[in-house]
Design brief:
Length: about 280
Amino acid sequence: MRDWLIPWLKSLGLHGVLLAALLLGWRSAPTPPPAPPPPPEIIEAVAVDEAAVQEQLQRLKAREQAEVRRRERLKRQRLAEERRLRRLRRRQQEERKRLQALAEAKRRKAAEEARRLAELKRRQREEAERLKRLEEARKAAERRRLEEQKRREAERKRKAEEARRRAEAEKKRKALEAKRRAEQEKRRREVARQVSQTVARIARAVERVWLRPPGFRTGLSCTIRVQVAPGGRVIGARVVKSSGDPRFDRSAEVAVRKASPLPIPDDPEVAGQFREFNFVFKPTG
């Protein structure tokens, strides 16, 4: 029995090595082919129990088939797990995308709400500023209106006061003017009276010193231009309008000079009219 068992075990071991190599080649990446086994020993043919060998081969084949089925089952499980993992990753990715989209939507909504609130605040601020400007403009306009009203009232009062002062001044002026005119008229009449009296006194003074010329005829008269210095002193006398009688004219001129100083009053206004004047000499007798 030892004579056929040893070769059979060697054959079984060789099949095991080949089966292991096949299994390793199927499960892992290809590897360089193993070195060729050494040439089998030349075994002497031994008679073995064919039934035992077949039985052993059947068991080996059954194990190989079981191993194949196990590997196929593991492969199916692995593929199923891979599909499950892919589905899980896909669901996770979809959930992540959904959450990202939701977060993005929330972010956009928050940003939009922030923009809306900012815009609302800006508009409210602008509206408040606009209302503030309107109120300030209204107050400024009211101040200007009141100031203008005060100015107009002050101007009205000023004009009324000015008109009152002008009327009062005009009234005073007219009163003074009337008084001045009355005084002037009074003065004029007084001066005229004094001038008239002075002319009469001069005429009497001249007539007192006049010497009647021979052949005098009553009613003769001549006009003499008389120049008088202060105090009534006669400094010039000449006939400017003759009576037609040279002797009468000459006698009148001499009489005027002899009557010096003439009776001229001290009143400057009256005396001023006699600095140089025309004297009509017309004796009465």
